[in-house]
Design goal:
This protein has 386 residues and is α/β, with parallel strands linked by helices. It folds into two domains: 170 residues, Rossmann fold, CATH 3.40.50.1970; 200 residues, Up-down Bundle (Dehydroquinate synthase-like, alpha domain), CATH 1.20.1090.10. The protein is built from 15 helices and eight strands. Helix 7 packs parallel to helix 9. The structure holds 5,6-dihydroxy-NADP and zinc ion.
Length: 386
């Protein structure tokens, strides 16, 4: 286990009663002018918007709206939100939605406090914002775990990059499983697969020897797989949605990363695919993971063997380590098919080899990956994913 420092910044309120119990009292801690940020139509359709407005009214706030935050939020949308904040002297941001809304608001929160361009600050000058408009996140779709970290994934359309930008941590988050019941099943499964991907990308990081962090991770992976199956069988079960909601937060709240350097090579590839195709995040990950792992398992063999045995119950009798590891990867791929995720890019209508070439040429190469991949090999992997 590497040395580590760990601080927890976000107050978490979980449960179907969490909004009623905590939202108004949390809102009362902040100034008068609140930015209510959300996506397109879902919160109005589901009634969550009315619940938010009622709480904001009870807390006696002036409400300004920032709507239309799209899946895979753009940097232009961040600038739009920051302008609303500046023009209206916003004291607090209430982000209501999935990872896209929360990510967009994390960077709005920082951009509104400075005249400097956040993208230039972070990617050219390698400096990070330290002043933020405080924010809270009400999660309506689980999977990214964005509500419990300060990383935001933003698409810069001008530059053709989808990159991780550091922004604000939420002061608090409301995790109400009932809100996630209205997410269409395919989207909800995609979110659950994203959670599993976060766990795997951390598990296969460095060091590869297992310790307490990895054992907690194994529990989260097993729970995510089990409850994804249960959700597919019965999409109306709120307890199952609750398990997945907390799995999602656990995947990205830092606990599974304690003492580790994470891998996240699959995410880096998927993010650039997303920059060029605007594809669904969880589905893009599902299409790439098994093929990527078939390229990497020999470089982290004992961990892939452990993954096969602990997560997929692969029977090791009479098999070589390589056979066990490959069977684990096959189980992952079979699970993707079982839950309706794509296992190839062509299933997502991504067939343009030029896009694959650009993806390989522009994605980050991570140092936590079992082996540093060359851009040629990433291109080969993407071709195999077709
Ligand atoms: O826009 P609306 O109308 O709200 O519809 C949304 C959207 O179309 C809908 N939705 C959300 N809650 C709903 C609902 N529909 C019905 N009922 C509800 N209760 O779901 C659609 C997808 O929402 P989105 O927020 O885009 O999904 P997700 O939470 O998967 O977020 C994806 C984004 O997060 C980034 C991804 O790259 C992608 O841009 N990620 C952020 C991470 C982080 N900050 O830690 C980590 C992840 O690896 C990921 O990269
Ligand atoms: Zn992800």
């Amino acid at each position: 286990m590497n040395s580590f420092a760990f601080t927890y910044q976000t107050r978490v309120y979980f449960g179907t009663d969490a909004t009623d119990k905590y939202l108004v009292s949390e809102l009362k801690k902040y100034g008068k002018n609140v930015l209510l940020a959300y996506g397109k139509n879902s919160i109005k359709r589901t009634g969550v918007y009315d619940e938010m407005m009622n709480a904001l009214k009870e807390a006696e706030k002036n409400v300004y709206e920032f709507s239309g935050i799209m899946p895979n939020p753009t940097y232009a949308k961040v600038q739009e939100g920051a302008k609303i904040c500046r023009d209206n002297d916003i004291d607090f941001i209430l982000a209501v939605g999935g990872g896209s809304v929360s990510d967009c608001c994390k960077v709005v929160s920082a951009q509104a406090k400075t005249d400097e361009d956040i993208w230039t600050m972070e990617f050219t000058d390698h400096r990070y914002p330290d002043e933020f408009i405080p924010m809270g996140v009400v999660v309506t779709m689980s999977g990214t775990g964005s509500e419990m970290n300060n990383g935001a994934v933003i698409t810069n359309e001008e530059l053709g990059l989808k990159s991780g930008v550091l922004g604000a941590y939420a002061d608090f988050t409301i995790l109400n499983p009932a809100y996630t019941l209205t997410v269409p099943l395919r989207q909800a499964v995609s979110g659950a697969f994203d959670t599993l991907s976060h766990c795997m990308e951390t598990y296969f990081g460095k060091p590869s020897e297992s310790f307490i962090t990895d054992e907690i991770n194994e529990a989260v992976m097993r729970n995510t797989i089990d409850n994804t199956r249960k959700m597919v069988a019965d999409p109306t079960d709120v307890n199952v949605r609750g398990e997945l909601l907390w799995d999602s937060a656990m995947g990205e709240n830092g606990i599974l990363k304690i003492g580790k350097i994470t891998d996240f090579q699959c995410h880096q590839i998927e993010h650039q695919l997303g920059a060029f195709t605007d594809c669904n995040h969880g589905m893009g990950l599902a299409a790439v993971h098994p093929t990527l792992y078939r390229h990497l398992y020999k470089d982290n063999l004992s961990k892939f063997v452990r993954f096969a045995r602990e997560i997929w119950n692969v029977n090791a009798n009479g098999k070589t380590d390589e056979e066990i590891a490959l069977e684990g990867i096959r189980c992952l791929e079979d699970f993707e098919k079982e839950i309706g995720m794509p296992t190839s890019l062509s299933e997502m209508n991504i067939t343009d080899k030029e896009i694959l070439r650009k993806t390989a040429d522009t994605c980050n190469i991570t140092r936590g990956c079992a082996r540093q991949l060359s851009r040629y090999e990433i291109y080969d992997i993407l071709l195999e994913c077709l």
